[in-house]
Structures are given as C-alpha cells and as structure tokens.
Amino acid sequence: MPLRCAIIGSGNIGTDLMVKMLRSDRLELTALVGIDPASDGLARAKSLGLDAPHEGPDWVIDHADDFDMIFDATSAYVHVRYYKKYREAGITAIDLTPAARGPKVIAAVNLTEHLDSDNINMVTCGGQATTPMVHAIRRAAPSLPYAEMVSTVSSKSAGPGTRQNIDEFTKTTSTALREIGGADHSKAIIILNPAEPPIIMRNTVFGALPEGTDHEAVIESVYAMEKDVAAYVPGYRLKNRPVIEEGPYNTPGGVVPHRAVVLLEVEGAGDYLPPYAGNLDIMTAAAMRVGEAVAEHRGVSA
Amino acid sequence: MTAADYRLIDSTLRDGSHAISHQYYADDVIKIVAGLDRAGVQVIEIAHGDGLGGSSFNYGFSAVPEKELIARACETATNAKIACLMLPGIGLADDLREVNELGVSVARIAVHCTEADITEQHIKVAKELGMESIGFLMMAHMNSPEGLVEQALLMQSYGADTIYIADSAGAMTVDDVRRRVNALVGALDVPLGVHAHNNLSMAVANSIAAYEEGAKNLDGTSAGLGAGAGNCPTEILAAVSTKYGIETGVDPLILMDVAEEIVRPIMPRQQVIDRAGLLLGYAGVYGSFLLHAERAAERYDVPVAEILLELGQRQVVGGQEDMIIDVALELARKHAEEEVTA
Q: What is the reported pTM?
C-alpha cells in the first residue's frame, strides 16, 4: 500500500511537487490543499481528479485519518503553527519551508539518517544544491576547515518568502554546510539576477583544502557526487570541470594552501515551473526523494 | 563653517578596499579616518569592499577582521559619523547590530537596482537601532529612470532616510546621470545621493551634474582608490566644487594631503584607466570584478578583456564574482578546442 499523501500549499512549489508525485508508485497523492480558491494550483488539482480544498492546513487535521504524510509547501510561520498538530494527528511532515522544526535532510548525503522522524526539514534550495558537494570534498580530504557556497537565482524565481527574510536563507544554508556537509566553518551567499531571459540557477562551492589533500581524490569525489544528485535531480550538473586553485587562503578555519572550486548549474525539469527555476525544482525533487525513502523504509514496495 | 551644499560620504575604507584586495590594517584606518575627519568629511564609510560579512573566498578574505577595523574608526573619529555598507544575501542584520554597538551610526543597505524589496528587513533593523538608513541601488545604469523611481519608492516606504544610486560599473554618461537624478529627485520625499566610478573618466563630471540636478549627497574616495578604474576622487571633487562655487564643508587642501601622503603610499598601483578599467565602463561590468578577472586571466591564460566582455554579455550583477572563474574556464576550453581544430 502506498503512503497516502497531501500537499499543503498550492503555489509554485506545491503545484510542481504535485506533478512529480502523481508519477510515484510509493506515494499516493489524494489532495492539494490551498487557501485561495482561485489559485491555478487548485484548479489543476481539481482537473486531475484530486481533492482541492481551500480551507488550508485545518482541512488536513480534520481529515487526519486519510493521510500518512503531508508535504508542507506553505511558509515557515504556517509550519511553525501546525507542526505539532500534524505530529499529534500521527501524520509525518516533510517540511519544504525554512521552519527547521525537524532534523535537516540533504537527500544525497544523510537520506537514511532520519527516516523514523515524524518531521523532516528540507533546508533550502541552495542547501540542497551545495551541501552534497561540500560533503564530497570533505570525504576526500583530511579535514575541511572552511566551506562556502554562492547561489545565484533568477529574480523571477525568488518568491516573497525568500525576499522578506533573506537572512533566514543564508543562515540555514550555512548551518547545513557544517552540520551535514562536514565543514568546520562556513558561509552562504545568495544573489538575485534579473537578466532576461531568466538565468538558470547557478551554484558555486568553494572548499578550503588543507596541507596533504589528495587533489585527484577530491575531484573524483565531486564527479561521483554529481551522478548521485543527478539521479533524483536530472538537471543537476557541473558547468565546468572542478578545479583546484593555489592560494594561500586566509580562511576563517585557518590558512590553507589550496581551494577547490565547484561550478554547478541546476536546470529544472519543467514539470510545472519553467526550466530556469532549478532552485524550486531541486526542492521538490529532493522532497520526493525523501518521501519515497520514508515509504520504502515503511515497507512500501514500488 | 558655512552650511555645505551637499554631503560628502568618503568610502576610501570600504570601496577603496577592493583596490588593495581587502588588506587594510589598523594603522591605515586610524591615519585615514583622522585625516578625513580633520578635513571636515561628515561621513566615513568602512567595511569589507563587498560590505559587512564580505570576507570570503568569493570576494577575498580581509587581512584583519572588519569589526576590529570598524572599532578603530569609531574611536578615531571626532566629528565624522562612521557608516557601514551591507548587501542583504552577503551580510546579516546581526552584523548591523554588532557594528551599531561599536558606534556606527549610518547603515547603507545595498542591492542590485531591480531588487529593492530584499532590503526591507535590513532597512527596518537599521531604523530600529536608531541608525540613519540609506538605501543604495547598485549598477544603476541597468535600470531606467522610471524603474529606479519605482525601486527607490519601495526603499522610502521601508523607512530609508536617503536613497543612493551607484554607477557601480562606471558606465554612465552625464546625460544618463541627469535623467536618473532628475526623475528620482522629483519623485522622492527623501534626499538623493550619487556614487560615481571613473571607468569612463566621468566620475567628477557625473557627480557635479548629479548635484546640479538636485542630489544632496555625493560619494568619493581619497585618490580615487576603489573598484575598477576607481571612484570619484574626493580631493578633486572638493577642488572642482569650489571652482563652481559649491560649498562642500570640507577643506580641499587637507583632502589633497590625505590623498598624497596617506593613501597613495599604500596603493599597490595608482588608479589609472587602463584597457581593463575602461572595458568595465564600456561593457557595463561591476567594477570590483577587475582584480579577480586579472587573477583568473593569469591563472587560466586567457585575455582579461575577453573575460570582461563575456561577463557583460551574460548580464552578471554585483556579487557574482564566482562567474569570473566560470567564464575563464569556458574561454580556456574554447581556445584549446580552436587550437585542436586549427
């Protein structure tokens, strides 16, 4: 029996996730829940034969017996208000907001660590894109004193939630680079670019390489990680070969002789959102990967 | 002293930081702040070149933690206010809180000229802290006068006390400046400022034109030290203003001394408009890319001019320094392929 799922939030992310989930054998999507009866997402859900209520998260609580899992694509403050209610109702929550109530999961790095948790946080789009590469550098080097990510997204794909609280993005992402990526110190930077036609999401990862690092091993590890992420985000790719540049670099984690530079591009699958919005696609693709892993862990076969 | 006709904000210790790869030491800060203060400069800006929190792989690490330098600046200034610049997405609201504790009283919140709505959080935090809050629209050549008005009004609605437009690529002509300043001064309730760069040799002329159109704040740096071919040199701006009969409130002779005796000796090279510098203005590329592009050109053996032109083509914005490596690698690959086919 597949897990019975609802998506809460009928905006861009929720609607894109809906398109992806309808292809899943392990997750059975029956409802897309919104608050705006006129939203395009709800209209699409209805036309696809799903429940499409506009009563918001309360509707899910009222129908708790019908669901094993919800995907929250609303906003951090809505998730903060409801996460306990999902828990009390016995529903597992995959949280795509930056609320960070549950453990953070980066699908390519710590997917199996929190499969029993009733609340899993998906960090940020930039975190999903760059933490795997930080981890890839870390596992091939004796240590990773400092890691940094720079994410550039098209202005059109940055929603009001990101714009009103951009510090939340950089802080949450930076934390993930340390806690999950394995860096001792970290920094996250986000840039919005208004160019037309909109640019595809770009991410750059810098890793501080200490004395004694096997540079070839770092590069191999980065290539291997590209494949692992591309397995669930098909548009995830190295834009150029990974390079090792010579310093020295006076990083917050100490002076190092070299740095690794990993230049990434994330093109979206174009399920609902346009392909340039790789930043949104990587969130929905990663959430799908986590949801399916939880289902598999509970014995749901494909 | 008679009231000044415009307020001069000196950014030697912030924008100038780009030109010395963010290698300021406490001694430099103390001497420069003391000199500018003595000359009567009203506001002195200090931070990493890319604003608070800018010390990074992407923009270059500071030699000395910026907050140590900011503390020295606050201790040294007797009359001048100390300002910091920050870019949301690079620095944090917490950085504003920390520097406010150190004595910084002016916060400049900088953003690409089409993205004003990401400054709301930080402008409000600065206001809550009791700081003067300046909204700073960068790369202003990339937006129309009407577009800039729209963005500036957003910042005004968040509580900004002053709005600035920055010609971060040094790409504007006098006409470009006049049209933008004219539109903004007509639409805003708060004062306007202009931050000019010298890539097209227009910095002083553009600043004077901005004043004539109603800008009440002008930026500059000592000896023009700054990103790209440099900023509007404060000592020249003060001298030219005096010739125009514009009251600056600063002593041009002291500013000349500061430029000659304190700043020039620490400059790794004088600010000249060489080919790369001129190309920034010509192609409309963010000025602080210059030294990074030169380093990438050398590392990957591709002409710096090609890197800068390609960055202009891609419409990269301030902060995207990582794209310099990307472009250099792609050009190197392209050249290698051409050699194979030839």
A: 0.95
